[in-house]
Amino acid sequence: MLEKLPSVIGQALHDRRAGLGSIAFNLIDLREGTAAINVSSLAFGDHEAIPAQYTADGAGTSPPVEWTGIPLETGSVVLLVEDADAPTPHPLVHAIVVALPPKDGNLPEGALDDAELEGDIGRNSYLRTRWLPPDPPPGHGVHRYAFQVFALSAGADLPKTPGRESVLKAIEEHAIASGCLIGTYERSDGSIKIPASSAIAAGPAETPGV
């Protein structure tokens, strides 16, 4: 959707970002005195690039995600995917899944487009109940996508298609463990970068003789 946006706009917004401090994992810090959930993907490692097939530049399917370390007293599991570098006041929501089984689990590739998904899909920032593929503005730089998993205690009351605010409220009141995997993606501005060392090596242009 944003691939045709002029790169000059992305460059102008380069320093305007929601920030990692605004994602749910950091906004509601559960790392002191709580269990840690390990979140991983077969498609990419932590702080590694998300393959284009899972973005707006490819098929746009949701990537595989798995999690381990869910506490025994968990009532349900929540997955929340946010773009920490969106040029917006708050992180852009790419996926919400609630009411996942209270145990170690996974979502296979394309699961967020599957009507038989085990769990309820919430609303992304475009108010759609599905995976929103990474689609950063050209020239805006690297975007960090946070795949966050939370274990909630029993009794968390969430609507069937929740938005970010209701999920944050449930996490704040009921979360007992959390984990986060960061995937990155960048859409180039299309320019060709010439290393400074190459320019120095070439030296000044010679003036033709007369």
Task: Please tell me about this protein's structure.
By secondary structure, this protein is an alpha+beta fold. It has four helices and ten strands. The strands form two sheets. Strands 1, 3, 5, 6, 8, 9 and 10 form a seven-stranded mixed sheet that branches. It is globular, with a radius of gyration of 20 Å. It has one domain (18-188): Phosphatidylethanolamine-binding Protein (Alpha-Beta Complex), CATH 3.90.280.10. Strand 5 (74-83) and strand 6 (92-100) form a beta hairpin. The termini are far apart.
Topology:
Layout: H1 7-12, H2 24-27, E1 35-36, E2 38-40, E3 48-49, E4 65-68, E5 74-83, E6 92-100, E7 105-107, E8 120-121, E9 143-153, H3 164-174, E10 175-185, H4 196-202
Parallel strand pairs: 1-10, 3-10
Antiparallel strand pairs: 2-4, 4-7, 5-6, 5-9, 6-8, 9-10
